[in-house]
Specification:
Strand order of the largest sheet: 8-9-10-11-12-13-14-7-15
Helix content: 25-40%
Structural class: alpha/beta
Largest sheet: 9 strands, parallel
CATH superfamily of the largest domain: Aldolase class I
CATH topology of the largest domain: TIM Barrel
Mean pLDDT: 97
Radius of gyration: 21 Å
Low-confidence stretches: none
Bound molecules: phosphoenolpyruvate, manganese (II) ion
CATH architecture of the largest domain: Alpha-Beta Barrel
Order of helices and strands: EHEEEEEEHEHEHEHEHEHEHHEHE
């Protein structure tokens, strides 16, 4: 249950209600909100005078639910916003990892040439092997911030663990939580304490319910700016790296109020399939697309097989434009 308490309620009564129903307390600028487990369906009559409004749910997708707030949340990224009344589709491109100044400058030039405004790359890479490329770390983060400032872009970069989370929150404009970190409650709770937008990727072994509940950790911590990113789940199929769950996306669009970014690159795992998938993603009418590009994918230090080279991206970009137009979207 979500309970909006009356503005003039005493702190003692608010605490009493929160404790009785084991609620998470969320303090916004003008009100106190209690979020109980969904099994609570009503409160004792003696508290009714203290309650402005309440909502009942049949599962723990609560703050993220359309039942609570029917409009997709509007999230500001630099000078643009996605969701809300905007009809923008964020197209965020960049390499899997930042590798050198030369590489990331080439990426920035491509973004500028295409009239886009966001750069994405990881400096702290969460790899499945300790022996593969782990990213440039803090030096990479500084380099990304330097390029972001020079080109006046917004920067999306990922946090891998709690050792550098404050630095990533400081430098990034959008903080990406990777698929492997979706269950890291230290990261989720810390991201609830900033106001910067969070791009939360779906764990590849997670249900939609678990995915949205991970978002609820951030939302109930006090950060309203959460974007969900579907990037493929593991199925019995091995011909592609993962399986992009577009049915799950249809569900998220119907039942949640969170903007959605689709990532065909990590789902497919092979560059040959990315353009077709990206067009399908654009046609899904979501708030954004994330596509990995690299000036020279063959020598990329991570995710080499799935990154588009710049010419491949230019070609794809030209075919995304009419699809965006057909669904009344502006690519930003
Ligand atoms: C990435 O975006 O480069 C990345 C590591 O993605 P994921 O967490 O989805 O694997
Ligand atoms: Mn990657």
């Amino acid at each position: 249950m979500i309970i909006h308490l009356n503005k003039n309620i005493s702190k003692t009564v608010a605490k009493e209600i929160a404790q009785k129903y084991e609620a998470v307390e969320l303090f916004t600028e003008d009100k106190t909100i209690l979020i109980t487990p969904h099994s609570v369906k009503k409160v004792d009559e003696k508290y009714l005078d203290h309650i402005e409004r309440s909502w009942v749910f049949d599962n723990d997708m609560q703050l993220a639910s359309k039942k609570y707030s029917s409009e997709i949340r509007e999230i500001q990224i630099g000078k643009f916003s996605i969701g809300g009344k905007s009809n923008n589709t964020l197209l965020t491109i960049g390499p899997c990892g930042v590798e050198s100044k030369e590489q990331i400058t080439q990426t920035a030039e491509l973004i500028k040439e295409c009239g886009l405004h966001t750069i994405r790359a990881g400096a702290f890479k969460p790899r499945t092997s300790p022996y593969s490329y782990q990213g440039m770390g803090i030096e990479g983060l500084k380099l990304l911030a330097e390029i972001r400032d020079k080109y006046n872009f917004s920067l999306i970069t990922e946090v891998r663990d709690s050792t550098h989370i404050d630095a990533v929150i400081d430098y990034a404009d959008v903080i990406q939580i990777g698929a492997k970190s979706m269950y890291d409650h230290g990261i989720l709770r810390r991201c609830g304490k900033t106001k910067k937008p969070i791009l939360l990727k779906r764990g590849f072994g997670s249900t939609i319910q678990e995915f949205v509940q991970a978002a609820e950790f951030i939302l109930s911590g006090g950060n309203e700016n959460v974007i969900l990113c579907e990037r493929g789940i593991r199925t019995f199929e091995t011909k592609s790296r993962f399986t992009l769950d577009l049915c799950g996306v249809a569900y998220l669009k119907e039942y949640t109020n969170l903007p959605i970014v689709l990532d065909p690159s990590h789902a497919m795992g092979y560059s040959y399939g990315v353009p077709d998938l990206a067009r399908a993603c654009m046609a899904m009418d979501v708030e954004g697309l994330l596509i990995e590009v690299h000036p020279e994918p063959k020598v990329a230090k991570s995710d080499a097989s799935q990154q588009l080279n710049h010419d491949e991206f230019r070609k794809l970009f030209n075919t995304l434009k009419p699809i965006a137009k057909a669904i009344n979207k502006t690519i930003i």
